[in-house]
Specification:
This protein has 251 residues and is mostly helical. It is built from 13 helices and no strands. The chain has a domain of 150 residues. The protein is 60% helix and 0% strand.
């Protein structure tokens, strides 16, 4: 059934609402995130995303080549510490993640490739940006996605995450909001990460890989330390106001 048919659209919307409600209750339900992604992947949406990607030469080349990404964690763990590949493998191992948990999608057309590529590289985006797998980190990465990918999924996940924050995790609001802002701002400034040549870049120092795409060497996963401002010396204002060159304010 074509994804543009009224019946297909109605079914997709119902599935989206169900998945959305489950994500609001628990943003860590990966299966529901995939279900939401599938329900928001009609032909018109994928064409819109493709047009946005094609505005970047690297994205246009990626859509033409349709190169799949296959990462072997055991091999990447043998790379020197500090490389992008080692950082990605460590992110996966430290968080109990396996590449097999990501759906492997068949690619018959451009829209299929976009979805497959985003699925396959999601955790690589985590390693590149430095965002963790906790809710704040996922929302921060979705902020980055929202700035780079012209589709509805990042906004939908952000909305679900914010509703979860309001209803169940208000104490986490500052950290989550900070992460979203950092992700959005960095995503607008960075080069398009879709289509990045991961295989060729895994052996590179992660600082070099980040510099290539316009990210700071430390990544954006953690909030920068707040700048300290020296307090004015005691009595300074009084001393200035007492100067004979300064006229006192009118009463």
């Amino acid at each position: 059934m074509p994804s543009s048919s009224p019946v297909h659209k109605a079914v997709a919307r119902i599935k989206a609402v169900v998945a959305y409600a489950k994500i609001v209750r628990d943003p860590n339900q990966l299966g529901e995130v995939f279900a939401l992604a599938d329900s928001l992947s009609d032909d018109a949406t994928m064409s819109r995303i493709a047009r946005g990607i094609r505005r970047h030469p690297s994205g246009d080349a990626a859509l033409a080549a349709r190169k799949r990404v296959d990462a072997d964690l055991a091999s990447l763990e043998q790379l020197p510490r500090g490389t992008l590949g080692f950082a990605y493998a460590k992110f996966m191992r430290d968080n109990g993640l396996e590449t097999e948990s990501i759906p492997s999608l068949a690619v018959a057309n451009e829209g299929d490739f976009i979805r497959a590529h985003l699925y396959e590289t999601h955790d690589m985006w985590h390693a590149m940006t430095g965002f963790g797998p906790d809710v704040a980190g996922e929302l921060g990465l979705q902020g980055f996605y929202a700035a780079q990918i012209d589709g509805p999924l990042p906004a939908a996940i952000l909305a679900a995450g914010l509703l979860n924050t309001a209803l169940f995790s208000l104490d986490d609001a500052p950290g989550r909001m900070d992460a979203i802002v950092r992700g959005w701002d960095a995503g607008r400034r960075a080069k398009l990460l879709f289509g990045y040549d991961w295989a060729a870049s895994f052996p590179k120092p992660i600082e070099v890989a980040r510099a290539e795409v316009g990210l700071p060497p430390e990544g954006i996963g953690k909030a920068p330390e707040p700048a300290t401002v020296d307090a004015p010396a005691a009595g300074r204002r009084e001393a200035v106001m007492a100067s004979p060159d300064i006229a006192p304010p009118c009463a």
